[in-house]
Fold this sequence. Notes:
The structure is a single chain. The protein is mainly α. The chain is built from two helices and no strands. The longest helix has 18 residues, at 3-20.
Amino acid sequence: MSKMDNLRAMREARYARATAKPATARPKPLVAPRDEAPVVAPAADAGDAGDADGLCGHRSMNGRTCTREAGHAAKSHRYS
């Protein structure tokens, strides 16, 4: 058999396997619920940073802080 004949045979075998079985969903592995306590930011760090400068002080996920004024009405934060 030539190389192309081998490739054709492999392709046909793969197609036969794919079409022979009905599409059934694989059972998902069971995941145990997390028993962790809710994460609470320390009040001294979050409150002092925003109140001392008169800034919002909201922290983003990567640790940057909001530079808008405290209690701003804008829905978005400006991080720096």
